[in-house]
Amino acid sequence: MINTGCLAYHSEAAMSFCFAKTRRENPLLTIRFGFLLRKNKEDVMKYKISELAKLLGVSTNTVRRYEDMGYISAVRDEKSGYRYYNDDDIFSVMNAKMHVKYGFSHEQISQMQSFSLEETIDAYKKRMDEMDKQIAYMTYLRHRLKDDYLLMNKAATYSDIYEKMSLTMYTVIYKDGEKLLQEPERLQKLGEFIYNSPEVLHTYIIPKESVDNGNFRVCCGWSVKEEHMDKYGMTANSYTQIYKGRPSVMGISEVPADIGRLANENPEYLKELMIGKHLDYMKEHNLYLNGDILGIVITKVRDSGKNVIYMLMSLPFGKKDV
Q1: pTM higher than 0.70 for the full model?
Q2: Are 81 and 75 in contact (CB under 8 A)?
Q3: With 184 labelled, which of 149, 169, 287, 289 sits at a CA distance of 20 to 30 A?
């Protein structure tokens, strides 16, 4: 009889949750993962693959896969010829399943089978750091999702033109009219914007001079808000255009998705669709265009059998002397 405060006892497995004395006091006992097990082979609980599969709620093929991954190891009984698993294997599988939930890869979990306590602590710390980054990234994505959601609702219910201070935007253009821009440093910066920032914005730019001289031209690019440049560790280069925040006339426009075709075939019609009502507002309020126009894409949808783009157009303005 062991002098312990046992909570439960399994007669066949000789297994208990215990406040046990050291193993030296009884060499037939060992403590593994909070369980007290007898060392005698005949006293150790053994499970056939079908029994283990039922206990774990998986198929026998899954059990074999766990064994292939190194999580468990069956022992063949010399008398019966059957291969058996033990209680340690149950813990190993459940531990591995928890590690999967934590986000460890199967390769990492396999390696962790032989980790010391210090190595396991280090692995957990690294995984927590990775999760913190993932949580931050998803938080930023949700901000962008919410912004788009609010703008889409505005597009569906609110079509007025209004005045508002625009945000400072860092923009890299990849298409100027019909000319595709592919300088290596430009492409490198485009890739940085697209892949480093979860809140990157697809942008249409209308140069001021193309409106003033009647030669309407649309450029395409990717933009990042000024506040996100440092947040995502991005920098500007010679191909980065900075559009400072300034008083602007804003409003949402609905435009056919084939903007490139319209820009070639009927630029004046495209101009009317994109900024016609904005220019009318400016004329009515004695305002003049005071810089390049930015259009931030909100979404592309299917409407009346056609693909259309909703975008928030922002026209910087100055006030005319009355």
Answers
A1: no
A2: no
A3: 169
